Amino acid sequence: MTLFCPPMVPVVLYDNIGQCSSSICRDMNQTTDQLRSSAPLTLRMHAADNVAIVANNGGLPAGTLLPEGVPGAGICLRDKVPQGHKVALTDIATGEVVRRYNVPIGYALKDIPAGAWVHERLLQMPSARALEGLPLATVIPPQHEPLAGYSFEGYRNADGSVGTRNILAITTTVQCVAGVVAQAVARIKAELLPGYPNVDDVIGLEHSYGCGVAIDAPDAVIPIRTLRHISLNPNFGGEVLVVSLGCEKLQPDRLLPPGSFAISDERDPALGPETVCLQDDQHVGFMSMLDDILASARPHLERLNKRRRETIPASELVVGVQCGGSDAFSGVTANPAVGFCADLLVRAGATVMFSENTEVRDAVEQLTSRAATPEVAQAIIRELGWYDRYLDRGQVDRAANTTPGNKAGGLSNIAEKAMGSIIKSGSSAISHVLAPGEKLRPDQRGLVYAATPASDFICGTLQLAAGMNLHVFTTGRGTPYGLAVCPVIKVATRSDLARRWHDLMDVNAGRIADGESTIEQTGWELFHLMLDVASGRKKTWAEHWKLHNALVLFNPAPVT
Ligand code: CA
Asked: How far is the CA of 411 from the centre of ligand 1 (A)?
């Protein structure tokens, strides 16, 4: 075959997990001409790796000679290698380690010659690191230089938290009331909301919990506190209005016990939350229920409507980062850019939550050594140990995480996926750990590990409960994911996805692989976009189209 011989292109190297050294990031710019000419391009994450991924759109055919300057130069591809998939850079004998990100992502199940496609069927996945004997706070990253002077326009709440949106939320105690609340919300939007122009939205906090569940089981604490804390999300301005059925297990004062919440109105918190109970004798007919909810909503709307955005330091952002529909580029483009941005946020005094237990499990050693204190490291071990046992009850392990789409996108197994996932957390010390459904205390800032399942909607729901006021979501395969409670900024890992989903993706991190941007530049782009979105100056595409995924509770306790 005829081969285009491009000019010298640098090997892409990372000096540590998630840390692209700046000189090399500059080098990545030089790849632009190569991609435009569709010359074969491979990306290697670390000099010690014996595989690289194919960057070219559509992959590379068998017989392609890897040109001078790219990882594997001079190797002829033995197989067609799809985009994002791995090619062996050396002969790898049966049983030898396959290394990416300078960590073992598997062991060869048979001899793999240089130039072969290294797909998941050729790899034996490494077993998970035991949770005993882990390093505790042994390589605490030094504090980065503070980043001052950045602010956004937000809504200051009575409890000190800050909203990025001004939303009336109607809390529900049980799924039974969901249909009624949906009708009430539709009427509030049509009949009341036009009179309150400073209120962004009215939403019902619908969920599947509340009855038919073993509510006294120890693990029931997770869904209950999740619902409680979502009702108190900073974007709701401290306004609490509950709709209850009446006979359900999760009674309003169990969901929101007196004293568990501060509210902005003059109501005595000792009375418990303001509640419309559908089974009350006063309700005669469906319309009386709706009328009652509308009448109860009105004073909340009036108070919310009086609020105005004010200039707030960037330190009040509480950003949840997550990925979904990941591919092999997630760990090369979008997640490193998010990680760089996470460092900027931490430097600005803000809070960044990263999560997804099954996607950090294979990197536990990195996390415990990065913890700010041994106590934080122990809390990471506690949460991941609990999750190991939870998975074990279901007779699976963290390997159950990966999807057909992940594998089609080049991720062979969870060990490889995890290395690309944790890069989102940047390089700061981990300062706090939250158990599922717990809410951040005002003094818990910096980089936080919020222990959640990796399931997109469950992770997002738990991050909302923790107090998230802005969400960043990276995707390689593509997802239209969005939340009603807070804005979701979506970051594409590949330019092809960003091009096709031009009105769903907010940031194209694929430009990093194209050589048109660097990790730092895309990280800064994301940082500035966050301030604009938090201020309401810009809407995300998910907001524009009103794409709202359901709240999905994590309920590890039995149902009845
Ligand atoms: Ca996820």
From this structure: 15
pLDDT means per 10 residues in the chain (560 residues)? Answer: 31 34 33 58 93 93 96 96 96 97 94 97 93 97 94 96 98 98 98 98 98 97 98 96 98 91 70 92 97 97 97 98 92 96 98 97 95 98 98 93 90 92 96 98 96 97 98 96 98 96 98 93 98 98 98 97
Q: How far is the CA of 425 from the centre of ligand 1 (A)?
A: 14
Q: What are phi and psi of 471, to 5 degrees?
A: -125, 135
d(CA 436, CA 227): 11
Tell me: do 330 and 280 sit in the same domain.
no
DSSP-assigned letters across all residues of 302-367: HHHHH---EEEEGGG-EEEEEE-S--TTTTTTHHHHHHHHHHHHHHTT-EEEE--HHHHGGGHHHH
CA of 452 to the centre of ligand 1 (A): 9
- State the distance from the centre of ligand 1 to the C-alpha of 417, rounded, in angstroms: 11
Residue 499 lies in a domain: yes
Radius of gyration of the chain (CA): 25
Domain annotation covers residue 316? no
